[in-house]
Give the backbone structure.
Amino acid sequence: MIKECMSSQEMQQQLELPLLTFNSLYNILREEKRMKSLQKLPEGFYEAFEKFIDNKKQEIKKLKNDEENKEKLMKDKNIYINSLKIYDELLNLRCLKIANVAIKNGVFDEEVLSKDNILSRENDFFSEVQKAMKKIKIKL
């Protein structure tokens, strides 16, 4: 019945979100650290993370008053907290790499480094850094 209330576009978008788990999030961070360039992530990565975090919040909320599941509650809280830490570290790494691409491309006025792996949600950040770089360059 709930799905009937969703538009077909919302249902399609929900179907396209990559499955995200704590382990997959950790592996994405590990790979981002390992690679010098920006790794390719699925376009719906940020939306999938938001959904994953929302689901964890819901699970924690359900378990709060359940005395029999104290252990599961603690486990879910740890996953929630550590997922946010991993996300912050991943976001910082990606922002540094995106800024590096934008600066280098701005310095040389051409695409020296590929911006293929920049997600649409990250594109505004890329554009702003590149624009700022060009303003600095013009003033010199």
Notes: The mean pLDDT is 86. The CA atoms of residues 63 and 73 lie 6 Å apart. The chain has one domain: 41-139.
